[in-house]
Amino acid sequence: MDYFIELLFAGLTRGSIYALIALGYTMVYGIIGLINFAHGEIYMIGAFTSFIVATVLSIYGFPLLAIVIIAAVAAAVWSSAYGFTVEKLAYRPLRKAPRLAPLISAIGMSIFLQNYVLLAQTSDFLPFPELIPEFAFMEPVAHIVGSSDMVILVTTAIVMIALTCLIKFTKIGKAMRATAQDKTMAVLVGVNVDRVISATFIIGSALAAIGGLLIASHIGQINFYIGFLAGIKAFTAAVLGGIGSIPGAVLGSLVLGLTESFATGYISSDYEDVFAFSLLVLILIFKPSGLLGKTETKKV
Amino acid sequence: MFPVKELKRSALTSLWFAFLTFPIMVVKVDPIERVVSWRWDNMFFIAFGSFVFSILAKVFIIQKERRASKKKQKTISEPLVQRIVREPRFLYPLALACFIFGISFPFLFSTYQTNIMTTALMYVVLGLGLNIVVGVAGLLDLGYVAFYAVGAYSYALLNYNFDMGFWTVLPIGGLLAALLGIILGFPVLRLRGDYLAIVTLGFGEIIRLVLENWNDFSQGPSGIANIPRPSFFGMDMTFAGGITYIYYIILVLVVLTIFVVNRLQNSRLGRAWLALREDEIACEAMGIDKTKTKLIAFSLGAFWAGFVGVIFAAKTTFVNPASFTFLESAIILSIVVLGGMGSIIGVVIGALILILLPEYLRALSEYRMLAFGAILVVMMVFKPGGIISNVRRNYKFKGLSVVEGKNNE
Amino acid sequence: MSDSPIILKVEGLSKYFGGIKAIDNVDIDIRQGEIVALIGPNGAGKTTFFNCLTGIYTPTAGDIYLSDPRNGKTTRLNGKKPNKITEIGMARTFQNIRLFPTMSVLENVMIGRHCRTKALIFGAVFRNKATRIEETQIIERSYELLKKIGLHRQVNEEARNLSYGAQRRLEIGRALATDPFLLLLDEPAAGMNPKETEALVALIREICAEGHSILLIEHDMKLVMSLSDRIFVMDYGKKIAQGTPEEVRENPAVIKAYLGEDVDA
């Protein structure tokens, strides 16, 4: 039973991280219909930025709490800046181009950013500083649920609630929903679509950065390539839940995280990634609208 | 001609990039030794570089707009390369010269050079194969490398287990890849373009991961070594002789591929592919069987990848899953995108540039993948047609009697 | 005309999108050699109706039967793929022009010949005699059609560079290239100037005289009234009237549907 609960929490933790990344995919897709292939790299840059900031601060002897807060803020700020810039450089000029053009551009961006970090930093795995301490009150259950699992779950929950409020109640949230429904109409009623798209990228990137920070401190090491796999898996989760749907992304991520956790725990860990990819292929073939998505009718 | 406002913008851009790249470019930490190195010179390079680049981009955009407005008045003349490609009296001698150069290459240069050229020519064929799928039929296949892997492993495994020779496996490898293309294509080709791209990507990764993990079948990550080079009527050859021999095999394959792809493009099938790329619904309404037509393109592309895969295994005498990552697919895609989707000469030039340049400019080879990524973005944004865009064939009519028009390629 | 065989029979056709009844129990029949118009206010479901006929949408209920007058074979079209339907002998044009924009004018028409020709990989690569003959025939036939629609001077022009009216004509030419016995035209005169419309009317008459039957959706009432043998009127997905132009003109339900619109224009 303990093993089951352990796997359950491991799966939820995994799923939470996927959710933080998947939200960026789903929001961008909902608004401009683009699979933002470079989103995994934004997450990787978030992890790298927090690594650099946290390590520098710890070398200069800052207290742990200050390190955590500054690293999180820095990761969010810089990831957002990257997300914003990527959209402006690689996607905005292609808004009216055929559908595949921005996707190819996104793939290019992804490869570019990976190699940019590789060249500017290193190809080695880097040890990530321990930002989350073992809490004393977690002691009795520590063999099943680690403190960092708990922190990830709680943080993700808070972030989700904040995001829901943002989309439901703020002006920019309303503008985002309007743009997602009908871009032309949104322009006509005075929504600045460019700004909405930028905001979407910024929010999505900030979420991914937080995911990057959390997972990096959870696993304890990073390198330039972590974005590719995480990105694909988060995308799988987004599609599983129904791409374009925010609750769908969360649901899909948790389902993917749990299934991965149980499959590797009870069956075999050799084919962990094969499993995720197969799931991706199967969903896209058999139910491309996902669990909570709506089917598209073709317009003639 | 360059207003102050634009300079100001470029200055702001350069400031923004200096900020953007600050943590990654400037700070470098060593977490073990616990030292921080501040690389301020990088910040200067970034700021300066982005300033220059943003000015160049602006100039390019202005020129493009000017050209576009000219185009409306139909006074624009085609670029020089395009005109050479179009005119048979320039094209044929040029092609002949290239061919003669190709044949005499091993005599003119060292074995080392020949080996590099062989690699480049392999990418030419891969590019032409993917060009059928992506460039002509408009199906973004991000798992192209899977078919390449099938070819390579066909030779490696059939040789290892059944001692089959290169020439026997060459067609088998191609056919197996094509078969896999059909099996995969059947369910996925009805998907919308971007989903198709992701599914093929996922599929490519699955193949690679299976090869990596299924030790009994593929010997896992360590791969299969000691694959024999092709034999020449049963004779053993020197190392240099073997390299030259493979060079000629691939050269023949290049010529053959160009011939076949050119004929396909100017056929009933080729037209249907192009039409499919432009408007699927209209295509169906015109009686074109969407699935069948796509499937032919997909499996034909796969066939070529399988072919080259066999040659790859024979050339390197060693295969392992690491040769077949997604990045390999991305490189081949860059070749097609840079060269010009649908354009044969474009793809040939694209492959030669992208593969030979980093080989000869060693300083550049480090930045190879960075450049491939940048090429995909820059080409899409500034020149989606590639360096040599595909020109439609011209038909001439005298009354009703048909005179076959000149070919574009 | 009433004695010629029925070539298209639609019975109780319905198409629902969720709760919206885009088409609700519509019956229609077309006889060989007729020009039939389908009219109705915007959003009446006319284009959806076309999309159901041509296999782009699968109807929720009802039957569609197409009979080839050349051999008398009747086929039920429900659930058939669009390309199969075109192969049987019903071709269409689109309301918002759907040409292949970067292909040449001639190639656009040549695409229409696709379903009547056979060459595949082998033929393409080896260019055997049969393929060469087939290819020549495709080109000749396409050129003939271009002459008919008056675009033979622009064979090598990219389709996107044509004027609006010429693009509409090219769509008709492309559809004709599939050898249909029934041609569906979705607002063929939309965006045309009076002179172009006049030429279009002549073209449609000519096509009809050659033995093609025509079903057209159109908002230009003058064109509809002068051209059609019979008219069906749709509103809110339902068929509200049918008959000769005179009968429809007098029909109170039609006048009500158009409410104030100048039906006699």
Outline:
The complex is a heterotrimer of chains A (300), B (409) and C (265). Chain A has 300 residues and is mainly alpha-helical. In chain A, 74% of the residues lie in helices and 1% in strands.
CATH architecture of the largest domain in chain C: 3-Layer(aba) Sandwich
| Broad shape of chain B | globular
Strand content of chain B: under 5%
Query: What is the domain total for the residues of chain B?
Result: 2
Provide the residue-averaged pLDDT of chain B. Answer: 86
Percent range for β-strand residues of chain C:
15-25%
- Gyration radius of chain B (Cα, Å) is 24 Å
- Please identify the top-level CATH class of the largest domain in chain B: Mainly Alpha
CATH class bucket of the largest domain in chain C: Alpha Beta
Largest interface, C-beta closer than 8 angstroms, per-chain residues: A-B, 63 and 59 residues
Distance between the termini of chain C: 27 Å
Write the layout of secondary structure elements.
The complex is a heterotrimer of chains A (300), B (409) and C (265).
Chain A: H1 2-32, H2 39-59, H3 64-91, H4 100-120, E1 126-127, H5 147-169, H6 171-181, H7 183-188, H8 193-219, E2 221-222, H9 226-241, H10 246-267, H11 272-286
Antiparallel strand pairs in A: 1-2
Chain B: H1 4-20, H2 22-26, E1 27-30, E2 35-38, H3 40-72, H4 80-86, H5 88-108, H6 111-136, H7 144-162, H8 166-188, H9 193-213, H10 215-218, H11 239-265, H12 268-278, H13 280-285, H14 290-316, H15 326-339, H16 344-360, H17 362-365, H18 368-382, E3 396-398, E4 401-403
Antiparallel strand pairs in B: 1-2, 3-4
Chain C: E1 6-17, E2 20-31, E3 35-39, H1 46-53, E4 61-67, E5 74-76, H2 82-88, E6 90-92, H3 105-112, H4 121-126, H5 129-149, H6 164-176, E7 182-186, H7 194-209, E8 213-217, H8 221-227, E9 230-235, E10 238-243, H9 245-250, H10 252-258
Helix pairs in contact in C: 3-5, 3-6, 5-6
